[in-house]
Amino acid sequence: MSRERLYLFDTTLRDGAQTRGVDFSVEDKRAIAIALDKIGVDYVEGGWPGANPTDTAFFADPPALKRATFTAFGMTRRPGRSADNDPGLAGLTGTAAPAICIVGKSWDFQVKVALDIPLHENVEIIGDSIAHLAAKGREAMLDAEHFFDGYKANPAYAMECIRAAWAAGAKWVVLCDTNGGTLPHEVERIVADVADAVPGIRLGIHAHNDTENAVANSLAAIRSGARQVQGTLNGLGERCGNANLVSLIGTLCLKPDFAERFETGITQDGLRHLTQTSRLLDEILNRSPNRHAAYVGQAAFAHKGGLHVSAVLKDPRTYEHVPPESVGNERHVLISDQAGKSNILARLHDVGIDLDPKDPRVDRLLETVKEREYLGYSYDGADASFELMARRVLGQIPDYFFVESFKVLVERRYNARRELVTVSEAIVRTQVDGNKLLSVGEGNGPVNALDAALRQDLGKYQRYIEDLELVDFKVRILQLGNAAAVSGPASVDRWQAGTGAVTRVLIENADGQGNRWFTVGVSPNIVEASFQALTDAIVYKLYRDGAPAGTGPAE
Amino acid sequence: MSRERLYLFDTTLRDGAQTRGVDFSVEDKRAIAIALDKIGVDYVEGGWPGANPTDTAFFADPPALKRATFTAFGMTRRPGRSADNDPGLAGLTGTAAPAICIVGKSWDFQVKVALDIPLHENVEIIGDSIAHLAAKGREAMLDAEHFFDGYKANPAYAMECIRAAWAAGAKWVVLCDTNGGTLPHEVERIVADVADAVPGIRLGIHAHNDTENAVANSLAAIRSGARQVQGTLNGLGERCGNANLVSLIGTLCLKPDFAERFETGITQDGLRHLTQTSRLLDEILNRSPNRHAAYVGQAAFAHKGGLHVSAVLKDPRTYEHVPPESVGNERHVLISDQAGKSNILARLHDVGIDLDPKDPRVDRLLETVKEREYLGYSYDGADASFELMARRVLGQIPDYFFVESFKVLVERRYNARRELVTVSEAIVRTQVDGNKLLSVGEGNGPVNALDAALRQDLGKYQRYIEDLELVDFKVRILQLGNAAAVSGPASVDRWQAGTGAVTRVLIENADGQGNRWFTVGVSPNIVEASFQALTDAIVYKLYRDGAPAGTGPAE
Questions:
Q1: Mean pLDDT, range B99-121, rounded to an integer
Q2: Which SS3 state, helix, strand or coil, does residue B209 take?
Q3: Which of A167, B95, B199, B220 is the Cys-Cys partner for B187 at CB 3.0 to 4.6 Å?
């Protein structure tokens, strides 16, 4: 059966850039555009050349895309100007972008309140602007702003606006739910009405997530006749975000009702890179990925309840709607307070430890995990610390080095040149095979200085940690009811009393062979928590590389 | 027009508790149950008594609910047992819960793979179990697990399962999309089929978000005949979460297509507490609320683009689908790199500073904000620091006290009793009116000790800060390209070089009159960043309380 072609249009770099806290650099934009092109997105909207220096620079030196059509965004001509003399349109046609998408109004209320011009003039503006772009040989598209609100308020006028664009040579008329308040059953009906009223019109859908229905609205529009769907990676976008293109790609490619009827540009290989592409955006934004994201979240195929885990181990289809590997994701079996034996056995297997379910040490491990989680540890993201904890319980981790004490000093003062400086220094006393080692380090913060001192001299272990690198460092403040239980010092101050706050530090480590591992530490004191994670990182490396045991501390 | 009654069923405390990283205490559960009851949710599912100590304790001493029906969750009887002799069912009827919801299988594949019993036996198990609960005088409900997958695979068998429950006296048959893979158009069709096939049946919908359609699936089911809708606060739940009850409440109460047709138990006052209820859950979980959540997110009514901001100031309906105050949320105008003048003027107005748009100081402020954001500051969440920054540029903040230097020491060592302890001490040298003050503090961490020392002696300002309290402390590690720009010390170590990491500290402060304010600090050094936020907190309090100026630092 021949399938209809459905086009994917990404606006991460334009509408997504409107998000609170998001500011892409030109290099960020280039990296994202190339990733989108690679998985097979049809249009990559790069931004609004002329609106800000970043976008102007990006369009002046556009990324080399293999398949996707690089698209510029802008506005219809200004009232009172001809399209030929409009500086905004000139800024768009002055770029090399083969496709140009311009936003025009289609809600009578907006024309009156925001533009303050006669209704018919807005229709002329749309027609002129599209005709101008088409005459310049560009693929012209209209983003019909507020189309659904407009159609509900004054359907005849909304239709007049998009008919003008279509008649003027638009290749696509994109129906926008700009305020995001339209519901799926309305989108389904309205898109069908429009498709009926203008035979042959090529419709797009641009949905926002203000009622948490952006994905459903996009799917409803496709079912009613839209053949272009706009969205952003991870649903990035102003307010509640745009339609999440990642979720849409998962459904359009993997769910038979869509995959059998429509063909997209997404390649098989692109689909398998969906998770990676989603994570790339978060990495560029320095955000933690949404663990609960559909298809690509770290928890999307995570199983916690003991019953679910045993069923999934029998047949994954029991609790998985698609195979995680189809989108480049993976199954996770969680250790948690609800952990049953099957969870912990599966998790141990993941880190290479196979135990008999009847082995009494399994119960001891389960107890230890529960106790540590009660204190604020979380092994969900710290496989190396989990493995060390398990192997310590199993008596498999020898003593390597022994830290007698450390001191960390942070000082802010004026230096000799009367500049305000903040310096951090650390002193660590270590023992290796009974030899006392004293080392010192400095850094741009206390943890940093401690790390430098710890690695300055580890005696016979030094060669094992030469290529050890700290890649990332994350801090989380936990509010626990039982903070006192992990508190070192007896002093209880206002914070401790008021909030029972405990710090959890997660460190990502790497070595020269490309290995990466995560370690965790927990304490009311951030330096102590970091120290735990730092020493776990070193011990894990020594264990994995088969370093010889030490002789333990001297008295 | 008389409206049909639609029932809201919350499972935050049961299915939501399956989420990665979530472990409610009994007190957490009580607080959430009471909040749900207050806004007008019909059923509060408290957990699974007998499955774990927390749930057993919670049901032994149930919360005093005014309107909501407290509901226990459990499973159908075990194969080979009579319902009367089933310990699981006895555990449920042993509680005082007036309603009991039990999960039973309705997908032939699951009966074979997970239960491994004949298909007809599963049907008998469902009927027996429901009849047993009904005979005990409880409102019995069946959660028909995997109903949609079951119906697609073997509709006759899936129907047989739910007919058995209905015939045995179930008050509700809840159709569960357990794996979350069903799409809205399928839910719409299947629920309509079921409602047609069993006239009078009372159907519920239980959707999961694995394709990001849980809300849409719930709405589709309601349109097709479901009159109970299950969900969780903020969409908490295993994998990608359950249907988000918060978003559903917004739509059901505020969107005419639903609000004119259906009546829920949500009160007007409850709707206005929707945002607060959503945030309560995050507070209990110590999570940052999702800023982009529909209806209740901090960014749900945030306007960043300059054009949008001017239109919203003319008429909010231009870019808001519902009034933010209807759900207890508020409008936010954002300061950002894209900030136009109208943004910054509106934001200044929010903190009580009204400037003429033509005032040249507005441009200076805009420049300052952009520069600070470039360095890693974010004023989105730190109104007090924003106000201080603006008033400093405007020359309105006098010199109060002056910190000459500070030293913070963190030490880990063995004490005289051979216990491992970690202690933190700070020394601060301050000047007030030329008088040099030396103060010292200790705490359970470096920031903590610094805070204690700073407040120990502020001379004539001491009485202003007596009731100042630090409520919360958040740390974010930022990866900036330009970290060196804010780096105090010249030393660049591995971390700095590798990641350009900068620490942003956000502190929430409170005083005895119930005021709360947020301050921010940024530095590669966490102690220095905290110091900035701590001193901003104090200066803000002094300014607001009208403390007299100091005479500045002595030489």
A1: 95
A2: coil
A3: B220
Which CATH code of 3.40.190.10, 3.30.160.270, 3.40.50.9100, 3.50.50.60 fits the domain covering A401-544? 3.30.160.270
Distance, in Å, from the CA atom of B146 to the CA atom of B148, rounded to the nearest integer, reads 6
Span A68-80, average pLDDT? 96
Please spell the DSSP secondary structure of A427-451, one letter per residue. Answer: EEEEEETTEEEEEEEEESSHHHHHH
Q: How far, in Å, CA of B495 to CA of A472, rounded?
A: 8
Which of the pair, A27 or A488, is modelled with greater confidence? A27
- Scanning B116-175 for CB atoms below 8 A from A yields none
B320 in Cβ contact with A179 (< 8 Å): yes
Q: pLDDT of A452-500, one tens digit each?
A: 999 998 999 999 999 998 877 878 776 543 332 222 222 233 333 333 4
The one-character DSSP state at B208 is: B
| Helix (H) / strand (E) containing A345 | helix A341-350
- Provide the token pair at B383: 């109104």
Q: For the domain B4-266, what is the CATH code?
A: 3.20.20.70
3-state secondary structure of A542: helix
pLDDT for position B306:
62
Of A306 and B407, the one with more pLDDT: B407
Q: What is the DSSP string of A398-415?
A: ---EEEEEEEEEEEEEE-
Q: A79-83, A188-192, A244-248, A475-479: which range is least confident on average?
A: A475-479
- Kindly state the tokens that stand for B400: 């109060």
Mean pLDDT of B155-173: 98
Instruction: Please state, in angstroms and rounded to a whole number, the distance separating the CA atoms of residues B146 and B106.
Output: 6
Domain with CATH 3.20.20.70 in chain A: 4-266
Q: For residues A173-200, b (16+ Cβ closer than 10 Å) or e, as one string?
A: bbbbbbbbbbbbbbbbebbbebbeebee
CB contact under 8 A, A489 and B444: yes
Q: Which residues contact B529 (CB under 8 A, 6 or more apart)?
A: B503, B504, B505, B521, B522, B523
Q: How big, in percent rounded to 5, are the helix, strand and coil portions of chain A?
A: 45, 20, 35
Residue numbers in B near A411 (CB within 8 A):
405-408
Whether residue B338 lies within 8 A of chain A, CB to CB, comes out as yes
Q: Are A160 and A123 in contact (CB under 8 A)?
A: yes
Please judge whether A495 and B303 are an interchain contact, meaning their C-beta atoms are less than 8 angstroms apart: no
Higher pLDDT, B146 or B299: B146
Q: What is the pLDDT of residues B220-268, one digit of tens each?
A: 999 999 999 999 999 999 999 999 999 999 999 999 999 999 999 999 9
B319 contacts in A (CB within 8 Å)?
Answer: 178-179
B554 — pLDDT class (breaks 50, 70, 90):
low
Q: What residues does CATH 3.30.160.270 cover in chain B? A: 401-544
Q: What is the mean pLDDT of residues B398-405?
A: 93
Question: Is residue B325 a contact partner of residue B316, using CB atoms and an 8 Å limit?
Answer: no
CB of A292 within 8 Å of a chain B CB? The answer is: yes
Find the helix or strand (DSSP H, E) in which A478 lies: strand A469-479
- Give dist(CA A18, CA B119) in Å, integer: 54
What pLDDT shows up at residue A483? Answer: 31
**Could A473 and B477 be called an inter-chain contact, meaning their C-beta atoms sit closer than 8 Å?**
yes
What DSSP letter does each residue of B219-258 carry, written as one string? HHHHHHT--EEEEBGGG--STT-B-BHHHHHHHHHHSHHH
* pLDDT on residue B313: 76
Does the pLDDT at position B2 exceed 80? yes
Task: Yes or no: say if B142 and B126 are a contact pair by the CB < 8 Å rule.
Answer: yes
Q: Which of B89, B70, B63 is nearest to B78 (CA)?
A: B89
Percent of chain B with pLDDT strictly greater than 90: 66
